[in-house]
Amino acid sequence: MSDIRLPSEKEFQLLALTTAERTGRDIAKLYKRAAGRSISYGTLYPTLRRLVDAGWVRSRDDVNEAGRIKWFLITGEGRRTLESAREHYERLSRFGACHGA
Q: Considering the domain boundaries, does residue 4 fall inside one?
């Protein structure tokens, strides 16, 4: 696991919301529903850009009657990273439990 960079908490949350192709606006709505609080576009888009730069998410631009739209979708590498992060956090949550800690 040491050779794999784990996503930050925010990256992990957004990565989990890109398992289907979604717009940034859709991701923001899902985030609010899942987290119980809003995410600012000033946090959302830079974090999504980091996910794209890491190769974990791909993006594409589109245009509709409302204007420009950016779509995001997890990549194979992103899925592997998401699963590794889930396993890592699961192991951390159990740390010490079998020794009465």
A: no
Q: Are 56 and 17 in contact (CB under 8 A)?
A: no
Q: Position 76: which residue type?
A: G
d(Cα 5, Cα 52) in Å, to the nearest integer? 14
Cα distances (angstroms) measured from residue 27 to each of 20, 32, 40, 92? 10, 9, 11, 27
Q: Residue 23 CB: number of other CB atoms within 10 A?
A: 14
pTM of the model: 0.82
pLDDT digits (tens, 9 = 90+) for 54-72: 999 999 999 988 889 999 9
- What residue numbers bound the domain in which 66 lies? 9-92
